[in-house]
Amino acid sequence: MKSGPAHLKQIIFIVVALWAPFISGCDQLYRLLHKEGAEEKKIIGEAETLEKNPNIEEVQLLLKIYGYDPGPIDGLFGGRTRDAIKRFQEDNGLNPSRFVDQQTWEKLRIFKDNGLIVDGQLNVALIQKLLKAAGFNPGAADGALGAKTKATILAFQKAQQLKADGKVGYKTLTALLQYLSSSQQ
Question: Are 66 and 81 in contact (CB under 8 A)?
């Protein structure tokens, strides 16, 4: 049997190689075992039990605006939020993992990133401009969701073969988004 510094180096190398995933922390092991959860953690941040997370609040708020019921906007991942994420993913042709992966995050934020949602609310003035760019007349782009704007939303939804309910949800916002560049001319 070998002894001395060379043998000791081999033993240390083997121990370090075997324990590296555990020494480097749980994150690496978690990434290996649960890809979706690890990707969500990278995007959302730590989701501690009973600790509000502003990114989770944003997910919940956006889901609610789009017509999905995430339960209370409390910054916590609960069953209703996970179910709402899954329904959103299914409706948008995404992997229904119930986790916020990169594709889900981008789809959730697309309207916020394009100014259609500002400070957690629909940007009605921009929606009115987009309706006008689409050939509909909601009246002045005053930011008020009045009777004329609601009637115009209904007409737009019918023309786009969407559910004509007068609510500006994900599908209506998606249809309006194509008019964004022409409304800014």
Answer: no
Q: pLDDT for 143-173, tens place per residue?
A: 999 999 999 999 999 999 999 999 999 999 9
pTM of the model: 0.74
Q: Are 127 and 105 in contact (CB under 8 A)?
A: no
- Domain 121-183 sits in CATH at 1.10.101.10
> Per residue in 49-68, pLDDT tens?
678 899 999 999 999 999 99
Cα–Cα distance for residue pair 36/31, rounded to 1 Å: 8
CA distance 50 to 62: 21
Residue pair 132/138 in contact (Cβ under 8 Å)? The answer is: yes
CATH 1.10.101.10 fits domain 34-113: yes
Distance in angstroms (rounded) separating the CA atoms of residues 157 and 168: 9
